[in-house]
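task queued by scheduler; priority normal; single chain, no ligands, no partner chains; default sampling; output format set to structure tokens
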Amino acid sequence: MPTSTPVTETSRSESPDLRGGLGQVIIATIASTVGFWAWMAIAPLQNIYAEEMGLDQGRISIMLAMPVLVGALGRIVAGAMTDRFGGRKMFAAILLLGVPAVLLVAVAGLIGSYPLLLLGGFVLGIPGTIFAVGIPFSSAWFPARQRGLATGIFGMGMIGTAVSAFFTPRLAEWIGYFPTHLVIVGAMVVCAVVVWFGMRESPVWRSSRERLVPKVTGALKLLITWEMSFLYAIVFGGFVAFSTYLPKYLLTIYSDDVDPVGAGTRTALFAAAAVIARPIGGVLADRLGPKAVSLVSLAGIVVTAYGVGQQPPEGVLTGVVFLLMAAAMGLGMGAVFAWIGPSTPPDKVGAVTGVVAAAGGLGGYFPPLVMGATYHADSGSYALGLWLLVLVGSVALVVAGMLRDARPKK
């Protein structure tokens, strides 16, 4: 009688039945959208907090950065736990655990407590970890040659930042501050129910029984983890930073032309451009290789960051520059995760994804602090912070050019 091991190995070598994979990835994308909406709940209403609590540039920056920090570091744990428990359980858990965080932020704003708002922002990082769950889940539902497409589709869940930027301030005007947060909570609960009853694991997925710490340590020993972490810190970190800080930037630099709702609309368009570009980056990486797409992305970020630093007059030119920057970041996000799949052992994809996603989140944590710290009140300029982005992007461009490409197996 044959043992179970040869049967398992044989089943893995055969073509698995991945029918329904697109539907599963779409459910994951919707869950990610809601998670990102909750994660970015503070930024669109920052003007309300600043006025009611009398916050200066520094305290606003800390307030905006808090959810990003926790969401970043938590992705390491979420990615490794996804290898153990699977995407279905992790998606549902993260959405439900995010509910108290949104309510805490709502109460903090209601009573005007800055310390409580920081605590709420800290816990609000939980929904931000959802990204590290979806990458391994989505990758497992597509063959290797299409994983750039799979992760690109899932990555469109970043549209949650656009949803937050566009709808949150409008909902606050239409139905009030506290009811707006109840709407977000309701969306999270409904989505968790849909995930629990509608989501299933890929037939190729296998639970990893390796303990969390050794698993993360194993991921950190892989060179690909560090290489992709650096690149993702630029492309995704830049996206998170601008999605978080752009309303404040616009209201400061273009105060005579932009109101809070208008700033939210522009931020939503910025996020939408990155979301649309992300699956394109994944598809192009599948066809051309992730290295070429990453180089184009980083070059675009450097050029557009320089353009933004010139502070062109509010209007079409400014809008185009920001949209091109967002598109460049989206292409890079799709390319980086297409790079990870062919370069990583299958049992470590979740852990590596978690570390890389954490690096991307950390890349979004520091820029708002830097922007607040380098703001020149006399000249009304963030030029120094933008020049730092140009410098770091240029270094990343050189590093990416030195890396070995990774084409998915046909």
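post-processing summary
- The radius of gyration is 21 Å.
- Residues 38 and 184 are 6 Å apart (CA to CA).
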